[in-house]
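Subject: two folds for Thursday's group meeting

Dear M.,

Sorry for the delay on this. The cluster queue was jammed most of the week, so I only got both jobs back this morning. I'm pasting them in the order they finished. Each block is the input sequence followed by the predicted structure tokens. Could you check whether the formatting survives your parser before we put anything on slides? The first protein is the one we discussed after the seminar.
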Amino acid sequence: MPSDNARDGSRTTADPGGAPPDRIPRWLRDPLVVFVLLGIGVFALDGWLAGSDTARPVIEITPDEVGRLRARWIAQWGREPTEPELRTLIDQAVDEEILYREAQRLGLDRDDAIVRRRLAQKLTFILEDAGASGPPSGAEVEEYYALHAERYRRPGRTTFDHVFLSGDSRADPAGDAAALLGELPAGGDSGDDAWQRLGDPFMLARDYADRSHREIAGLFGRAFADAVAELPVGGWNGPVESTYGVHLVRVNGRTPPRAPALAEVRDRVAADLREDRRREQSLAAYQELREDYEVRLPATAAGTESVRP
């Protein structure tokens, strides 16, 4: 007689033409159990990795770094470092790297105005160097000079002598200057040096050659420089007031302002052109970085928030 198992299709024996029996326990098919087991596994793996990672951070002083240390020593002291001195330099470099890494780990580089400014300055230099291009062509230099000719204009220059009359030692220096003017030769003969014995002692020179308006103003004051610029060439004139007192002045020569030929200033023009290009390319690179940030500024006087994209 057929057995019960035969009648119900043999649930415990694999069907030769069907799937193998399900041998995974039912509790392992529960999603919550699977999730818990996976969590335990990840936690155990993390602990194992942390326990096995006993290697310390590496500080490597490369031969190139040693070469830079040696070069800095030679530049400062004018000789090669001895072995103990070089060892000290290397030890100092290691100490500096350790302190630097620890300072970073503690976040000491954050919220420090000096560090922020230095890093920003360093990135600016990098942007400028990245934007540096080759030397400009001759045509580019000529075009740049034509556009900025006023920048290279040579100022007018004046050669003059003066007699000083001090307000500290005279009751009426301007009146004395007017009286003294009659004793000086009216012509432009600068070969007669009798004028040098007239007037009062002066802390600066009594004669000046080829001085620009700016240089004269720096020595005597702007009012004096403006007055000298209006004096005719040849003969004594005055009185002219300065920051020191009163002067009689003889202009011996005057060179008008002029625009130099490009050949005279070509190197300067080329250097200025390269600098302008580098600055423009650096600014363009910064603008690209700037577009990646949204800047929110404090509220304006009208009470609205200012936002720059």
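Second protein, same layout:
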Amino acid sequence: MTTFQRQFLYLSTITATISGVLYIGIRTFVEPADPWALVNHPLEPWALKAHILTAPLMLFSVGVITAQHIIRSLKSSLPTGRQSGVIMTVIFGPLALTGYLLQTVISPLVTSVLSWAHLILGIICALALAIHWRVLQGRRLRRRPGALPVLRLPSEELDPDDDHPRSPEVT
């Protein structure tokens, strides 16, 4: 996974998690000042809009890393980060599905069940990503025996004698 892909995944996950938790927290635990108010707090619609805008970015970032990172890691026999990675992989599908269903369901009971399921799945997924990051932190800088090779463009190949990228060879 490239640095851009990693940062894009972390940033989109953090913003989607914060906006989602903020929205459900305001919606559930804040009492409106006016009993006839449509929203519990003036930030409630903004938190929902932020979540609706950032969640597809998270979905896209997971799609970007699926072939190069997720599938290759699941096929390998390396134990590093496997448990947290599998948890995220298994939970992400239902998380995305409940998010899309929340936008289409009309029944208040189904909406409530889906929203709590979406919240719980989202928190588990975000915690698994944090654990995944923590487990792998520090292991990125040193080579591990049996580690999956990083896919690089020919212009990014490293010279075996030093750690600086070589310029592409002109033929």
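Two things I noticed about the second structure. The mean pLDDT is 81. The CA atoms of residues 158 and 165 lie 5 Å apart.

Cheers,
T.
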